[in-house]
């Protein structure tokens, strides 16, 4: 009875050991690659050809991956690059697509692709180039397992989808169209800051007017009021020369000249009343 129990225990330990040794090599199912959920890139060409020029190294692990890197790139190009033109051709070229061992417990991967555009006459008119690299540490797991290779391919494809779209929009904008084939201009449209439905106000510059010189108002001197009666103290009229002879006024020249006051003639000045100028006050 005891020997039977020992044999059963040994069989159980042996089966657990086998499962532990298998580890990452246990059969697993991996979802197939799919990139149809990503935005499509429409090109103004009649067709797009996919060319795989990648040559893996002899010890490459690419073929062991559930989805080899070059196959993932082909699927991505088929689902994302769409021809919407009537002439010209696009060539999607895969130059490198590999996963290799890096050290004892790590993986390194690289993807290198280019998109070339030729017009209807066969003249090369545009190129977009994209390259991504990745490194994956295995940690406690076997880096060469199918699960590790599957993760490595997915990580590189995430990087490639972003990089390729960026490079195409950067260098091949004149060849991009919308789904209906209308070219995308890529120009930044001006946005009005006025309220919707209103016409932007136009501010007219003020009309320039000739500058007139500003003249200070002239000082008007009021003519001195003159009385028609002769001044009793300083009479005007005849002039007297130095000898005491009276001379006639100068002939008129047509200009009005104010008469000049003259000294009174002898005997004109008289004291008022009965005042005697020789009297002496008491």
Secondary structure elements and their pairing?
Elements: H1 2-22, E1 41-43, E2 47-52, H2 69-80, E3 81-83, E4 89-101, E5 106-118, E6 124-137, H3 146-171, E7 176-177, E8 239-240, E9 246-247
Parallel strand pairs: 1-3, 2-4
Antiparallel strand pairs: 1-7, 4-5, 5-6, 8-9
Uncertain runs are 1-24, 187-211
Strand line-up in the sheet with most strands: 2-4-5-6
Structural class: alpha/beta
The strand count comes to 9
User: Share of helix among residues?
Assistant: 10-25%
Task: Describe the fold and architecture.
With about 280 residues, the chain is of the alpha/beta class. The chain has a domain at about 45-175. Helix content is about 20%, strand content about 20%. It contains three helices and nine strands; from the N terminus they run αββαββββαβββ. The chain has helices spanning about 1-20, 70-80, 145-170, and strands at about 40-45, 45-50, 80-85, 90-100, 105-120, 125-135, 175, 240, 245. A four-stranded mixed beta sheet has the order 2-4-5-6, with helices on one face. The longest helix is centred in the middle third of the chain and has 26 residues, at about 145-170. Residues about 1-25 and about 185-210 have low confidence and may be disordered.
